[in-house]
């Protein structure tokens, strides 16, 4: 797989809400991602932050 395909795989895992899978995939392919490594990490971190906020909001409303 080329770096673009690997990055697309990361985006797919995150879209499927498989954050742990995305973390593992990034770690496994960090050397192969090349210039996309920082983008993949940023995408993952941003998604984790959004998930944390959503969990807090759900807790407030008891859902």
Describe the SSE topology.
Layout: H1 3-15, H2 19-28, H3 30-33, H4 37-61
Q: Give the terminus-to-terminus CA distance.
A: 41 Å
> pLDDT under 50 segments (min length 5)?
none
The strand count comes to 0
Radius of gyration: 13 Å
Q: Output the helix-strand order.
A: HHHH
Helical stretch tally = 4
Q: Biggest β-sheet, characterized? A: none
- Give the DSSP E fraction (strand runs of 2 or more residues): under 5%
Structural class: mainly alpha
Question: What gross morphology would you assign?
Answer: elongated
Give the fraction of residues assigned to helices.
over 70%
Keywords:
63 residues, mainly alpha, 4 helices, 0% strand
Question: Mind explaining what this structure looks like?
Answer:
The protein is mainly alpha-helical. It contains four helices and no strands. Helix 1 runs parallel beside helix 4. The radius of gyration is 13 Å and the shape is elongated.
Summed up:
With 63 residues, the chain is mostly helical. It is 83% helix and 0% strand.
């Amino acid at each position: 797989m080329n770096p673009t395909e690997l990055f697309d795989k990361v985006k797919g895992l995150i879209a499927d809400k498989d954050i742990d899978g995305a973390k593992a995939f990034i770690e496994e392919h960090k050397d192969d991602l090349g210039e996309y490594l920082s983008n993949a990490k940023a995408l993952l971190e941003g998604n984790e932050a959004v998930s944390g906020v959503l969990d807090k909001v759900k807790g407030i409303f008891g859902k």
